[in-house]
Design goal:
The chain has two domains: 115 residues, NAD(P)-binding Rossmann-like Domain (Rossmann fold); 185 residues, Dihydrodipicolinate Reductase, domain 2 (2-Layer Sandwich), CATH 3.30.360.10. Helices cover 32% and strands 29% of the residues. Helix 3 crosses helix 4.
């Protein structure tokens, strides 16, 4: 009998997760949006359930028979949803970008013997896996990453359309950004310390604007005392910071619907991860670059693919027992297991999502 997986949320990322798992598991997608559920079930072998995900009783009923729950709800619902699932004693993989500290539920998860893997998407997610893995292999001095999702034909700063939940994007622009310098946590305003960064994509040079956002999340805690310098930045087309600040300063009403892209808009996701430190006394520098584009055939965005398929890779590790740990597990814990890391990256590679790596050491 197939294991039962309940995916909470039938948005873009929830759809990618449910479709990815549907051939191997008995998958149910739960959401209040009937149209989204119909769109999913009409193309994939996915059961659907109309559920008010803001109602804890509805969520409890939806997950009652699940072997694993995946939370792909908007950030403002994430923490309460996670708590509800843990109270139901169900293992969970979570990608909701909530502001609360997930470790506030660690004791509850331990008492209920629940494996609760959180922040298991693109970023947070992939950079954290690598931080956990390499922190066990070498002395990391500097760890930083940049990530962004953008549309090919919308290069103007005022033409940006979110590639994930618009409310979560706006939260990135308002939540204070935390990073670590010389072992101490530094707090800066979001959108601060801008810089222009060049990327070589398909033989072309792409210049993007990078700025501080609060993307380190659990790494601030899990890598404390192990990595003295850590920073995350978001990537946008040049001029975007000035545009957002103008909206904020003038109090211009912000409506998420105005930022909603069409289903077939060509877009891409770009990420660069840099690791510098020492291994066996020798200097070691590593760089990882990920570029993914919209999947026209499956009609799944690059952000949904990179986030959703990463989550699905973690889900498989939990379902088959490759990863089992009672309590809250941020992705750096999962990445510290080489078996899990290899499996997740192989899962992504099978879906044409590849991290190109470059290594330079003292000898190179």
């Amino acid at each position: 009998m197939k294991q039962k997986v309940v995916v909470l949320g039938a948005g873009r990322v929830g759809k990618a997760i449910a479709s990815d798992l549907s051939e191997e598991f008995d998958v149910t997608s739960a959401d209040i949006n009937r149209d989204a559920l119909q769109s999913l079930s009409s193309r994939y072998r996915v059961n659907t359930r109309v559920t008010d995900l803001g109602n804890s009783e509805d969520v409890s009923d939806a997950v009652r028979d699940a072997d694993l729950v995946i939370s792909a709800v908007p950030g403002h619902m994430g923490f309460n949803t996670l708590r509800t699932v843990i109270e139901q004693r169900k293992d969970i993989v979570d990608i909701s970008f909530f502001a609360e500290d997930a470790f506030g539920l660690d004791e509850l998860a331990r008492l209920n013997e629940v494996t609760a893997a959180v922040d298991c998407g693109l970023a947070p997610g992939i950079p954290d896996f690598l931080a956990g893995f390499f922190a066990a292999q070498m002395q990391i001095q500097d760890f930083d990453f940049m990530v962004g999702g953008l549309h090919f034909d919308r290069t103007g700063p005022d033409q940006y359309l979110p590639t994930f939940s618009p409310s979560d994007v706006w939260e990135e622009y308002t939540r204070p950004a935390r990073y670590v310098r010389d072992g101490k946590m530094i707090t800066m305003p979001a959108l601060s310390e801008p810089e222009l960064v060049e990327f070589q994509i398909g033989g072309h040079v792409l210049v993007l604007e990078a700025f501080n956002t609060d993307g380190l999340r659990s790494l601030i805690r899990t890598m404390a005392g192990r990595i003295p310098n850590m920073k995350e930045k978001t990537l946008r087309f040049p001029g975007h910071i000035a545009y957002i600040k103008k909206l904020q300063e003038t109090g211009t009403p912000w409506t998420p619907d105005a930022w909603k892209p069409g289903d077939d808009e060509a877009e891409f996701t770009l990420m660069r991860i840099t690791i510098r430190g020492f291994e066996s006394g020798q200097e070691k520098n590593l760089s990882y670059t990920l570029f993914a584009a919209y999947d026209k055939e499956a009609r799944i965005s690059s952000m949904a693919r990179t986030t959703g398929y990463t989550c699905a890779g973690v889900a498989r590790c939990v379902l088959d027992g490759t990863y089992k740990r009672a309590g809250i597990s941020p992705p750096s814990y999962i990445g510290a297991s080489p078996q899990c890391l290899d499996r997740i990256f192989a899962h992504l590679k099978e879906r044409n999502i590849v991290l190109e790596s470059v290594e330079n050491d003292a000898a190179g």
